[in-house]
Amino acid sequence: MGFTLEREKSVVLIVEDQKINRQILGNMLRMEYDVLEAENGAVALEVLERQQNVSAILLDIVMPVMDGYTFLQRLKASPYSEIPVIVMTGDQEESAEQKALDLGAWDFVSKPYRPGTLLTRLKNVIVRSQFYLMRQMKHAYEHDPLTDLFNRNTFFLETRRLLDANPNVQFALVRFDIDHFRTYNSFFGDEEGDRLLLFIADHLREVSRQTALCTYGRINADVFCICLPYDAARLEAYTQRVCEELIAYNRDYRIEPSFGVYLVHDPAERIQVMYDCAAMASKDCKEKYLVCMSYYRPEMSRKAVQEQEIINEMQRALENEQFEVYLQPKYNLETEKPYGAEALIRWNHPDKGLLSPGVFIPVFERNGFIGKVDYYMWERVCRLLHKWLSQGKAPGPVSVNVSRVNMYNPKLLELLLGLTEKYSVPASLLHLELTESAYMQNPEIMEKTVHDLQNAGFSVLMDDFGSGYSSLNTLKDIPVDVLKIDMKFLSGNADS
């Protein structure tokens, strides 16, 4: 006993005001298609809202309520604009056909209708539309929806083809992103963030026009990648130009990119490995003033393994209170007596012993965990100050670090006041240190934050002043209470 599967018919919508014409057309089509009817353009739009699997539309031009031209205009601006439309007309004037084509019509059939011609043209436009839809789907699958660049998968595939086709060419795979892009988005909004990404995408297209051997794409978020023949001078010039144009793009915020370069020595190597190496290189130049590009070096891989170990253990370390507070005393040079202290963090690791902050703080700054560590230190210092005060002692102020992440936290003042109130500690005993680099990246926003903290009774210190960003000219614009001058600022001839 056999059986057959019935092919699902395509749906055709007939838009015609004359009922007899709808009947004639319906009789011609029902052997091949499921048929829907509408007596004018307005009813047709209602039908499309209810029945969203229409494969083609047969459209009369002259109709009451809404004629064919108006319907085409409305269809073009609707979610159904990709449905192919065949205009049915007895008007042989070329101007009428041209107007319909301009409004989005795909083809024409003349009255009186010839069944063979009608069915062939209908079949052709449906096949064309399906092919067009498949191309659109393929394009959407391969491209980033915002920038229309290759997405991650397609970039990797196309780069693989590029390297395989040109084994004797030295290529460089360059991965870059925008430092603190999330902060930029929070300041200016997602729409402005998207405009910045489109601006970068246009730059990549410009570079691609300058070399035939090139692939480029948006990997995710603010991360882009380009693979092109390696030329050290040209690459240096390009990255410098991008840095300058990004600074000019928004004068109210210093936009800083980080470029990681991986030189391809083995074209058969997996693209994912090349990309990971370029990503390590891009991390290497972050937070370094006037350094926006770094080349991959093998030791970066070893460093990445160590960093991952830190990331795997950081939350457990916080929960188990493995981070300890060490106090470095401060002295008043006039009285030569102690005047408070600076709270320093150490990680008392159960297996590796005491770890200095240089090992783990840079990792926490890159992944944002520094925000939690800041709060951990603030609370322990407040707890310590509370203990001394309850014992009748008169402690000097203790300074704590406030990372860039927390300086941009809109709830920073609320968090600090919550701790000082919880432990009954005067705000004047908790000094807050921020780095010069955090301040100078966005002085206008930081000035407001600093003023808010000062108005609440906190003293604000700037650490590492003169380490690379500022000069004495900037002193007049800095509203902090204390400057901690970096030794590099005072370096010179020891005998002079």
CATH fold-level topology of the largest domain: TIM Barrel
Low-confidence stretches: 1-5
Large-scale geometry: elongated
Number of domains: 3
Radius of gyration: 34 Å
Q: Structural class of the helix and strand makeup? A: alpha/beta
Specify the helix fraction band.
Answer: 40-55%
Overall residue-averaged pLDDT value: 88
Task: Bin the strand percentage.
Answer: 15-25%
Number of strands: 17
Distance between the termini: 107 Å
Largest sheet: 7 strands, mixed
Kindly report the name of the CATH homologous superfamily of the largest domain: EAL domain
- What is the C-level CATH assignment of the largest domain? Alpha Beta
Q: Based on the structure given, which CATH architecture of the largest domain is correct?
A: Alpha-Beta Barrel
In DSSP terms (H or I, runs of 4 or more residues), the helix count works out at 18
Give short descriptive properties of this protein.
TIM Barrel, disordered N terminus, Rossmann fold, 7-stranded mixed beta sheet, elongated, alpha/beta, single chain, 496 residues, Alpha-Beta Plaits, 5-stranded parallel beta sheet, 17 strands
Layout of helices and strands:
Blueprint: E1 10-15, H1 19-29, E2 33-38, H2 41-50, E3 54-60, H3 68-76, E4 85-89, H4 94-102, E5 107-110, H5 115-142, H6 152-165, E6 171-178, H7 181-188, H8 190-208, E7 215-220, E8 223-229, H9 232-249, E9 257-264, H10 271-284, E10 293-295, H11 299-319, E11 323-332, E12 337-349, E13 353-355, H12 357-367, H13 370-390, E14 398-401, H14 404-407, H15 412-422, E15 430-435, H16 436-441, H17 443-455, E16 459-465, E17 482-485, H18 487-490
Parallel strand pairs: 1-2, 1-3, 3-4, 4-5, 9-10, 12-14, 14-15, 15-16, 16-17
Antiparallel strand pairs: 6-8, 6-9, 7-8, 11-12, 12-13
Helix pairs in contact: 2-3, 7-8, 13-15
